[in-house]
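Suppose a colleague, Dr. K., hands you the sequence of a protein chain of 373 amino acids and asks what its three-dimensional shape might be. Before reaching for any lab equipment, you can write down a predicted structure in token form. Begin with the sequence itself:
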Amino acid sequence: MSSSVPTWTRVRSLWTHPTAPDCVHVIDQRALPHRLEIVELATADDAARAISDMVVRGAPLIGVVAAWGLALAARRAAPGSAAGAVEEAAARLCATRPTARDLFVAVERQLAVSAGCRDDAGRREALVRSASAFTEESAAACRRIGLHGLSIVEAAARRSPARPLRIMTHCNAGRLGCVELGTATAPIYLARARGLDVFVWVSETRPRNQGALTCWELAEAGVPHALVVDSAAGHWLQRGEVDLVLVGADRITRRGDAANKIGTLLKALAARDAGVPFHVAAPWTTFDLSIEDGVAGIPIEERAEAEVRFVEGTLNGGRARVAVHPHSTPIRNPAFDVTPARLITGLITDRGCCAAAEGEILRLAREESGWPS
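The predicted structure, expressed as tokens, is then:
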């Protein structure tokens, strides 16, 4: 682990190094925004721990790390055992974060690649190639989300040309949670690149405070922003201080219900009451067409009490952990909630924009896959 970051890490949150092909490097998101630290993932267990411990987070990045985890499992396996090692690693990875659809897409894809290989050498090479391809596809998907979402951002800006466009986010749907650009942040970065005056309201997003990650990103990119506590979001929406809400997602159903970081539903409800458009940005790998009703069908991860019971920060230059609730108090800590399609103005995907409606989502699926009409 190192606090020094070479120039080739400035854009991406995950990378391989040409002199160290047997591992991947990721930014340790737990240390941000106070310190920038790099973690090396050399085994499938490293990848699984990075996902479960939230060294990495964000559905697209979780999927990419899982793809590399299976490649690492094959590379580290004893002679003649790579196929079994990949199967075992797949089970471990799938148990880490049950809500993130991209995780399962990546694992299913890598298992299919492994099954098509005749020997260990071919399996290792094929899984590394597939993980690399999955990484590039994820980055390209975010770029396309940015381009498709740019029209929505520009249209919102035209409605109030005399002042900055005010966008509210939740959690971190930026490059830290993806490979490049992010999902909900991609249209913001592209809009800024075109000279659009944008201001971002960043929700704190307790209990993990992932809004701080978004602030770190925006500050690096020179985008004006302000951090607000979660409970203040409705206040700013009600007062007409928000023009557009853009959030990401970890799983989207065939009818448009979207699971995202806990607290997203409250923003959607407040946005509906205030008449503010609420858009969800996600790659196609986040869609789960096997589920119709998101509330009933999407598995919601519940995490440890300690995430709520304690807060972490810096004190006198070092990290400090402080208890804010007594140990006698029971705590429930769901990591996600589900925003029903009726509260979502539209979906921004790498395949295009559409309404949060089953017919529109299946239309995008048919157009891309060649399904019969």
